[in-house]
Amino acid sequence: MSRYINEKLSTLDAYVPGEQPKDAEYIKLNTNESPYPPHPSVYEAVRKQAGFLNLYSDPESKELTEKVAENYNLEYENLLMTNGSDEILAFAFAAYGGGRKRFVFPSVTYGFYPVFAGLFGVKYEEKPPREDFSINADDYCGVNANVVIANPNAPTGLTLSIGEIEKIAATNKKYVVIIDEAYVDFGGESALGLINKYGNLLVTRTFSKSFSLAGGRLGFGAGSRELIADLKKVKYSFNPYNVNRMTAAAGVAAMDNWDYYANNCLKIAEIRDKYKRKFRELGFFVTDSKANFLFVSHEKISGEELYSRLREKGILIRHFDKNPIENFNRITVGLEEQMEILYKETEKIIRES
């Protein structure tokens, strides 16, 4: 870093993204991308918009917003399109944190939450999970703070019920409750139907996982008109053209082919559950993930060693070195053939251990 950076940023622990190798030699199961390509119509939609790159994109993403509203049975004013769901989360930390306004979130969760808090100077508290890594909803009731919870949670894949989310929103009426639904399409229960019942509830979504658009960078936030107005104020103070025209077109085409993506999610969930059973039979502790990944550990081998040995074999998974999950790895659910190769190589490693 240079000597010019401000003191706050010089001490910030930035988010560390998963490995993105430049070669194609790896079976890549480390960053929760979809193993399935976008629907063919997405490519055509992107190609058409590539001819207009000399023009700014629509700052309102009007066509995309209308399409998302139609597909999710929401009103136009309940939605804000963003550059991935990370951006809507960043807007929320900027809008609702600072001063005496703090955030509360789990200590085992998506690593960007404490990063955003540090970036925007927001005080926060981390709540430890139960021994099985599940979240105790009672820990977030009446906390007199903004709450953010990934549901299903990352990297555990465990979920809260809609009733539990309602209880959290109802007991923190003076604060915003954010439910990050990046993985909900693989088996979770969505809270989108609650946004008109609870004016303090913000639900965030991404197209990266279930809609095969990780490289497109598209997400959205859904909440009351008042919350969306708050977040639009942040957006228009930062980057009015945050969703480029090719990505917006890709999102519209994805919405127009809902069944294709829903079927892909079902296939991923089936493969997940199959290998959840197989890894347990191999002696692994595996959480009951409802996301597009498995969260695993084994008493015979450390998480770091398993990660390293699989990497040597050309298989990438995600290792965590933070207590209490330093012996765990997160495995993205890939195609059946990829998962079978992973399983057989892991079985060999466990036998050798």
Walk me through this protein's architecture.
- This protein is α/β, with parallel strands linked by helices and 353 residues long.
- It has 2 domains: 7-37 and 259-352, Aspartate Aminotransferase, domain 1, CATH 3.90.1150.10; 40-257, Type I PLP-dependent aspartate aminotransferase-like (Major domain) (Aspartate Aminotransferase, domain 2).
- Helix content is 37%, strand content 14%.
- The protein is built from 11 helices and 13 strands.
- It has helices at 7-10, 40-50, 62-72, 84-96, 112-119, 162-170, 225-235, 245-255, 258-281, 303-312, 336-352; strands at residues 27-28, 79-82, 103-106, 124-127, 146-150, 177-180, 201-206, 219-222, 285-286, 293-297, 315-316, 318-319, 329-332.
- Helix 3 runs parallel beside helix 8 (245-255), helix 4 (84-96) crosses helix 5 (112-119) and helix 9 runs parallel beside helix 11 (336-352).
- 46% of the residues are buried.
Span between termini: 42 Å
**Major sheet characteristics:** 7 strands, mixed
Helix percent reads 25-40%
Q: Any idea how many domains?
A: 2
Q: Which shape, going by the Cα principal axes?
A: globular
Secondary structure tally, helices: 11
